[in-house]
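Table S2 (continued). Query chain:
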Amino acid sequence: MTLPALHNTGVLYRRILSQFPQDISLAFAYGSGVFKQHGTSQGQMEKNMLDFVFAVDDPVTWHTMNLLQNRKHYSILKLFGPTMISSIQNEHGAAVYYNTLVPVDGRIIKYGVISTESLIDDLMHWKTLYVAGRLHKPVKMLVQSENAKLRAALVANLKSTVTASFLMLPESFTEEDLFLQIAGLSYAGDFRMVIGEDKSKVANIVKDNFQHFRILYSNILRDCPQVVYKPQQGKLEVDKSPEGQFTQLMALPRTLQQRITKLVDPPGKNRDVEEILLQVAQDPDCGAVVQQGISSIVKSSSITQSIKGIATAGLWKTVSYSSKKLMKMWKGWRRKPSMSQMS
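Corresponding output:
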C-alpha cells in the first residue's frame, strides 16, 4: 500500500525547494500557510508563514551545502560549522533543526531538517511524535524518495494513529469525531497549546480539510479488521471488547506502550508489557490511559524542542515568532468557535 499524498506541487513550492540542496529523501509543507483553516481568508493564508520539513540521509553533508547556499538562514550557531549543527539536530529535542522567519521568494518560511533515520524511528515508534504528529494530518508532499523503509513507516504511522484514536473513542462515532481525535493527538500535552497556540486550532484544521483527511485515511479504515466503516453515512463502529482493545493496545507504537506501562505498573513490580496491556484492555478508563501516554510523549518533546529552538532561531527571531503565535492565540480566543456552530 502506498501513502495517499497530496501531490499539488505548485510553482511556488518548486521555486522554494530549488533554493536548497537537493539531497532530500522526503519534503513536505504543512500548516496554516498551506492548508486553509476555518476563519482564515485566502488573503490571510498568503501572509502566513509556510512551514516545511526536509528529511535528509546525511545531515552533515546537507548542512555543509546549505551553509554555502543559505548561510543567512542560520543563527549564530553557523559559526560552529555543519558537524556541530548536525549534532544539535540529532541529539537534542525532537531531532529536528529549524531555521525560522526566512524570506524566500516573497514568502516567509520556516524549515525543519531531520535525518531520514530519525524520521523513520519517530514514524514507527512515536519516539517524540514531533514530525510523526505533523504527518497525522494532511500535508503537501513535495518530495518522496523510493526508500521502501520510509514509505512503509509513513503508512505505519497512519495506522498507529487510527488504532490509538479507536481506543479513545466510544463504540460508535462519526468520521468527524475520528478526524478531530486524530488532529488533536499531537497537541495533547503540548505546552504551546497552553500558551502560544490558537485553542480552536484542532477544530479549524478539520473543518476546512475534511476531504483531505478522508483521502489520507479511507484505505486504512476500509482495510482495518477492527472497525465497521460506513463511508456513505460517515459512521464507524469499533470493537470495544477487552479482546478488541487488547489487540489494539498490542498494535500501538513501542514508545507509547512503554509510557502506558510506566503509568499503570507500580514501581518495583516489573511485569511484562503484555500482562500490563491486558490489564489496561479491561479497564473502563483504557482510553484515558492511552491519552495520558500520548500526552507524556508530546509534553517532553515539545518542551525540549522549543528550548532548542531558541538557540537555532536566535533570540530576536524567537521573540518575533512567539509574539505572532500569541497574537493568533488571542484572535482564536476571541472567536471561540465550536464544531456544532461551524457545522
